[in-house]
Amino acid sequence: MAKLQDVFNKLKEVKIEKLDKDIVSLGLVRDLAVEGNVVSFSLKVPLGEDPIALEKRTIEKIKELDWVEKVDIKVEKHRVETPKFGKEAEKPKGPQKIEGIKYIVVVASGKGGVGKSTVAANLALSLAQKGKKVGLFDGDIYGPSIPKMFGIEGLVPRVQDNKMVPVERFGIKLLSIGLMLEEDTPVIWRGPLVHKAYQQFFFDTLWGELDFLVVDFPPGTGDAQISALQLVKIDGAVIVTTPQDVALIDVKKATNMFVKMQVPVIGVVENMSYFKCPKCGEITRIFGQGGAEKLGKEMGLPLLGQIPIDPDIVQQGDVGMPAAAMGMEHPVAVEFMKIAEKVISAFE
Ligand SMILES: Nc1ncnc2c1ncn2[C@@H]1O[C@H](COP(=O)(O)OP(=O)(O)OP(=O)(O)O)[C@@H](O)[C@H]1O
Ligand SMILES: [Mg+2]
To answer: Would you kindly state where each structural domain of the chain is located, as residue ranges?
Structure first.
């Protein structure tokens, strides 16, 4: 037993740097056995990790125990199956529909901080105000913000029959990776683990019957996005941008990703389009003008709406009640309602 424990302790010293954990904690070691002076086990290699280098490191670590004569490792590549693209594709299963959900709409952007979460939250609310059954899924594994915007931080979703039950607020079913994490928990779900996380959030959740599931996507066009697009059939994408010319390059990138993955792009929301002086009503286009029109011409993308820079958006986000919940007198709520109508008419 002592030998087994010694080996175990040594294995715990083998770290996977990217995931900031050791191979034992990550559950990569299986069937560990010691017979005489021979150690054997199987080792799963996470995606993106060099199997030969990891095997070598592990053997060296165990050989630090002077009684060890032989280390017999059965190496299994890839901890999580992620379908590949191109020639070596192993024929992926293809994106699946989620039972009970009519349309899945992702809110995406080429770059961060342009107001995706703001648009996702307000679009979801406006769709609900139009009488639709709506879910909102915070798919931003790296920087979840939906719980704060809906004032549900710290609320842990119930589990029923091994499935997660979304939290309800303003008649919307909400689920966020942020609800599962303590505020300062480092997010270790990178790469292949993100794929697994998405799978659970999409398929092991009691969403019930929904007209729309709005997904707040992480910024950019990285692995997490591709993962989600491979797993679940997305019915449409709303792209958020700001008016600067440079932002347009990012919109093109995001659009190309969706086109490649055969997801229809419903249109573009231009956020922070202008500032209207509350005193004199004068409109200032702080970030320039004409960007959205250019997009229309160059890429054939419809403009779904233009959201002004409005301090209420920040304030409402901070108090846990998105601006669209402020009532129809508010210009921002009116604009989001128009966007919701356009999204609905893209489907019905
Ligand atoms: N139209 C607006 N007027 C004023 N403030 C806004 C507006 N849109 C967004 N903001 C503020 O800008 C910040 C970033 O917005 P948000 O979190 O929605 O962006 P994001 O694209 O989701 O960012 P990330 O890429 O980090 O997920 C927030 O503090 C939000 O309240
Ligand atoms: Mg966000």
So the answer is: 2-77, 101-347
Q: Ligand 1 center to residue 187 CA distance, Å? A: 21
Question: Model confidence over 244-257: pLDDT tens digits?
Answer: 876 788 888 899 99
Residue 138, ligand 1, Cβ within 6 A: no
**Model confidence pTM above 0.85:** no
CATH architecture of 2-77: 2-Layer Sandwich (3.30)
- Rounded distance from Cα 100 to ligand 1 centre (Å): 31
Distance from Cα 291 to the centre of ligand 2, integer Å: 22
How would CATH label the architecture of 101-347? 3-Layer(aba) Sandwich (3.40)
Q: Whose CA is nearest to atom 31 of ligand 1?
A: 314
* Pocket mutation for ligand 1, best pick of 107, 111, 116, 118 (most atoms within 8 Å of C-beta): 118
Task: Measure the CA–CA gap between 201 and 141, rounded to whole angstroms.
Answer: 11
Surrounding ion ligand 2 within 5 Å at CB are: 116-117, 145
- 271 within ligand 1 shell (Cβ under 6 A): yes
User: Of the candidates 261, 332, 334, 270, which has an alpha carbon nearest to the alpha carbon of residue 302?
Assistant: 270
Residue 174 confidence (pLDDT) above 80: yes
- Scanning the structure block, which residue is given the tokens 């003008």? 289
**For residue range 276-304, what is the model confidence (pLDDT) as tens digits?**
888 898 888 877 777 777 777 778 888 99
**CB of 118 shorter than 6 A to ligand 1:** yes
Question: What does the pLDDT average to over 125-138?
Answer: 96
Ranges of H-type helices in the chain: 2-11, 51-63, 116-129, 146-149, 192-203, 223-231, 245-260, 291-299, 311-319, 331-347
